[in-house]
Amino acid sequence: MSSLFEAAKSGDATPFAEGRLQFRPVDRMSNATNLVVRGRVQIQVRTGSVIAVVKLLTDRGFSVESACAWLARQLRLPTPEAFWVWVEKNRLTDGWPYGDTPFKRCFATEYVANAQPVQLDRLSDQVLATHIKLDDALLARIAMYDALIGNDDRHDDNLVWAPRVGALLIDHEKAMGGENMNLFSTTPRPGPNYLLRRLSELPRARRHALRPTVNSFCAECISAVERIPLEHVASTAFLAEQMERYLALSVDRLHEEVSQALGFSELFNIRRNDVGTSLQ
What we know:
- By secondary structure, the protein is an alpha+beta fold.
- Helices cover 33% and strands 17% of the residues.
- It has two domains: 13-110; 116-272.
- It is built from nine helices and nine strands.
């Protein structure tokens, strides 16, 4: 095969630009469950190459990461640019997780230099808004996104920031059921996710000010879920069917879940000129 790009079906519309890992990875960034490498990637639609973080995931992990990246892009959330990268077995000296398969299409994102954890609990609201570019409205959008995809794994290491870039969301392969839960569980989530719980502790007026954001973002989520090309994003037809069912159920209850978590029913008596104050 003259090019790994030929492995893709001719004429298929791909949701992400595709590329191939060049030479050997710069370094390994393995986590507890998956092999992750950082290396130079040649992207089809670009002149030159980029440094990317490439994740060698299971088919399920690849599908979920791809779906979450597509949704984040449609919802205009801050994430590194995503790619699909073909990796050859001989690029790795050891640890190839795909048996005798000679190459595999993997999920990757552009490497962001100097990215570091946001550390929400250690920073003031002013620092978050001014330096991290993470204000109440963006935090609410991220919290609702996590609720939509069923991500209860948001923590300092996957909410990062970089100078001149601001906050970035990464690592969503554990969404839509999680590695240690029933796949694509349709039962109601046990409670608000980490960021929704954090928002629920804001003063009443600041929560009230989030109503327009909640309403508009929920509408955006409905539109995005209706348009997501799961037939191209998912590795198998079975995964596509299950992901479609999961997202349909999730988006249907999103507004109610978020409104309940933020206590909107208790905020009906907040006056317009109170918004932005520190009412408790």
